[in-house]
Specification:
By secondary structure, the protein is α/β, with parallel strands linked by helices. 56% of the residues lie in helices and 10% in strands.
Length: 322
């Protein structure tokens, strides 16, 4: 396989039809109704990253336009072109011309919650003016950042985070197609590090495939710069037993051997703390520790020294020695 000329796997395995979109069956069924009736309203796709918003938009347009797809579909990333000029120029110039062999064109605005307030106001008027020749699909992580007048002009679809089963099945399918030896433990590791983001899952799989033909969970954690869940839990347990220096040594391993950032460490500490049962961490202690983790995360986001804050957080854990 010549990796140098191949598409990234996230593009190579991007769905070409709505029926191929993973884990959003209710949404794709409703979108297929639009293709059957040859018309659609303006749409707003909202949801976390890597759950199929862009894939559903492109697949919908391809089912509408078929061989005329490139002439009738415009994709823009609003986080790159977020000012009022892109609405006044690029979008208006595309919207004002008639569609090629179809009733309307489609403009897809990815990450539209990054558009400035002025750009959103201009977009609202543009959506009204060119409603006969153009339809808009807006994609965003947070629909609350889209002004109300635009929301009211769109049918809103809320994309759910993908389930572990959906991620696992898709990853296994890609691995089988690429003739990669993927262990069950590696699949579980990919599910853990991707957290419902299929794009991230496939990227991690491709990155791992460049280092070894037989992929294990160890490979996945190394490539994604994440610690094994049991290692993070071990750190928590050692700190809660009052052994500060031992816990500090485990922290060093996460930071230096795995190359994790302070924010990565604190995110995994929070995730594992929540998952630990009553026998490992009593309910009241867990509540207080999660509150403490939140406090130290805030300090780091505000610019405090990562190393100092992580060691201080571990010191807080040792106060709960049984």
């Amino acid at each position: 396989m010549d990796v140098g000329i191949e598409l990234p796997w996230i593009e190579k395995y991007r769905p070409k039809k709505l029926s191929e979109v993973v884990g959003q069956k209710n949404i794709t069924q409703r979108l297929q109704y639009y293709t059957q009736s040859n018309t659609m309203p303006n749409l707003l796709f909202s949801g976390p990253a890597g759950v199929g918003k862009t894939s559903a938009s492109v697949a919908l347009a391809k089912e509408f336009f078929k061989e005329n797809f490139s002439q009738n579909f415009l994709e823009l990333n609003a986080s790159d072109e977020r000012g009022i000029d892109v609405v006044r120029n690029t979008i208006k110039n595309f919207a004002r011309t008639l569609a090629f062999n179809f009733g309307f064109k489609i403009i897809f605005l990815d990450e539209s919650d990054a558009l400035t307030f002025d750009a959103q106001q201009a977009l609202r008027r543009t959506m009204e003016m060119y409603s006969k020749t153009c339809r808009f699909i807006l994609s965003c992580n947070y629909s609350s950042k889209i002004i109300e007048p635009i929301q009211s002009r769109c049918v809103i679809f809320r994309f759910n985070q993908l389930s572990s089963k959906d991620i696992g099945e898709r990853v296994k399918g890609v691995a089988e197609n690429e003739k990669i030896d993927l262990s069950n433990e590696a699949v579980e590791a990919i599910i853990y590090v991707s957290q419902g983001d299929l794009r991230k899952a496939i990227n991690v799989l491709q990155a791992s495939a460049t280092t070894a033909h037989k992929i294990t969970d160890k490979t996945i954690y190394e490539v994604s710069a994440k610690a094994r869940p049991d290692e993070v839990r071990e750190l928590i347990k050692v700190a809660l037993s009052g052994k500060f220096l031992e816990a500090r040594a485990l922290l060093d391993k996460l930071l230096y051997e795995y190359g994790m950032s302070g924010e990565d460490v604190i995110t995994q500490l929070h995730r594992e703390m929540v998952a630990m049962d009553e026998k490992e961490v009593p309910g009241k202690t867990k509540i207080e520790l999660i509150d403490t983790i939140g406090e130290y995360n805030f300090r780091m986001v505000e610019g405090a020294n990562e190393r100092v804050q992580l060691e201080a957080l571990i010191a807080q854990f040792t106060k709960y020695k049984k």
